[in-house]
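Sample entry as discussed:
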Amino acid sequence: MRLLLIRHGETDHNAERLALGRRDVPLNERGRLQAQALAAALAGRHEIDAIYASPLQRALATAQPLDEALGLEVEVEPGLIEMDIGEVEGLDFTHVRERFPDFIRVWLSDDLAGAVMPGGESLQQVQDRVWAAIESIWERHPDGSVAVVTHNFVILTLLCRVLGLPLANFRTLRHDLAAISVVELTPERQTVLALNDTCHLAGEGLAGGAWRGRG
């Protein structure tokens, strides 16, 4: 299966550099334009057999123009929802550091995989549920090309899994808003074919995203 990993377009929370997990905020105007540019590029470059999306509206709204361009119905996959960041939701990094110093100390270490966000999930929990969702999609489309519209931590933890990297290495990866990464999954191996592609945004002046740790 060829898997196109697509991060949703920009929201006001992204633009304001606020932590964004499961709060169901909409795309802003820039995000809607990014979604249109994404659909135009993918409709011309890739054969896509199915589209799956997180249940959050910013992911669904990013998927909708692609749905319309390809004539495919977006299928909601709950396992693709963003990390539950609990009490960190809506805060900037300065306030997170002030309110949760013990958590931040672990989060910035190499032992962060099991560190649970205050009132939320750990990266290990995210990776486990996301991989289960991808395996389910893979069973349905073993030889297909599938677009998945989802979120930052979902994509980064999945890429760590595919690349065989410890979760602490998510910091060495970047996936911008409305960017595309492409992964090929076969029974023999898992291969990253493209990473953080934003070429479809550059000509429109829509490239460039918020700090990568936010939704």
Observations:
- The chain has one domain: 2-202.
- DSSP finds eight helices and six strands in the chain.
